[in-house]
Amino acid sequence: MMPYVWAFVVGGAICVVGQILFDVVKLTPAHTMSLLVVTGAVLDAVGWYDPLVDFAGAGATVPITSFGNALVHGALTELQEVGWIGVITGIFSVTSAGVSAAIVFSFLAALVVKPKG
Amino acid sequence: MAVKSAGRGTKSYKPVSMSSKEYQAFAKAREPARSVWTNCLKAFLVGGLICAIGQGVQQFFMSAFDMSAREAGNPTVAIMILLSVILTSLGVYDKIAQWAGAGSAVPVTGFANSMASAAIEHRSEGLVLGVGANMFKLAGSVIVFGVVASFVVGIIYWIFGIGAWHDTSG
């Protein structure tokens, strides 16, 4: 049961940060999401995001911050294995699942669904 | 009567002569009051719930395919995206989003929702110019800034040595 509680609490807390950026700092959704992704990338760069994933599970992997984390993971893993060119070739290696799934499913949805209004 | 309407006439001109600073104060005073606390509570509840559902999917991958928590992260995200696109297609996700604010926007499901709704909305403009060109209208900035940030991080580690980075095998 505890993994679900921590996923709920940590995931919810990250969403509250987003809500504060919306309401208090008055950022647009696009600015907020971009900021959160960059935050995730920086947190992984200093080595704090993986411990958070171990602790909170989906509470850390489902919010958009994990996208930045996964991009850095891809770039640095490939950098370690093949050298400097890996920074470019590796960026999408981990996020392929998320981005590809979003493109394919959205495209299929557009074929099937009629827009409302 | 005539005097009265003339008086009203001059009065109605007043907002036009406002400076933009005055106008902003005027508009701000008339903005509907939104409680930041209520919004944050809603965001916490819905965001937390989405992550708890994600945890359920992750537990499934961990037990069914014998994956570690980090390995299960990727397929979990893919399933969450599929669920989000289905809910977007049914028109349910946008209803949740109106109530939940950042609670439904910050999880990766919100990222998928922005892509799916843009794709559906612009379908009438054609597959290439409509669906293809508009799908990343909102999601594009996330990808651009994520990739640029990761590139900068990668270059910094390349210059100062990858050895300092934490274990990637996890």
Give start-end ranges of low-pLDDT stretches of chain A: none
Structural class by SSE content of chain A: mainly alpha
Helix content of chain A: over 70%
Strand content of chain A: under 5%
Q: Termini distance of chain B?
A: 83 Å
Strand content of chain B: under 5%
Count the DSSP helices of chain A: 7
* Shape field of chain A: globular
The total count of strands of chain B amounts to: 0
Q: Give the SSE string of chain B.
A: HHHHHHHHH
Question: Can you give the mean pLDDT of chain B?
Answer: 85
Short descriptors:
heterodimer; A: 117 residues; mainly alpha; 7 helices; 77% helix; B: 170 residues; 76% helix
Walk me through this protein's architecture:
The complex is a heterodimer of chains A (117) and B (170). Chain A is mostly helical and 117 residues long. Chain A has one domain. Chain A is 77% helix and 0% strand. Chain A contains seven helices and no strands. The longest helix of chain A is centred in the first third of the chain and has 22 residues, at 2-23. The N and C termini of chain A lie far apart (43 Å). Chain B has 170 residues and is mostly helical. Chain B has one domain (37-160). Chain B is 76% helix and 0% strand. Chain B is built from nine helices and no strands. Chain B has helices spanning 2-13, 20-30, 36-64, 69-89, 92-100, 102-105, 108-121, 127-134, 139-160. Chain B is extended. The model of chain B is unreliable at 1-11 (pLDDT under 50).
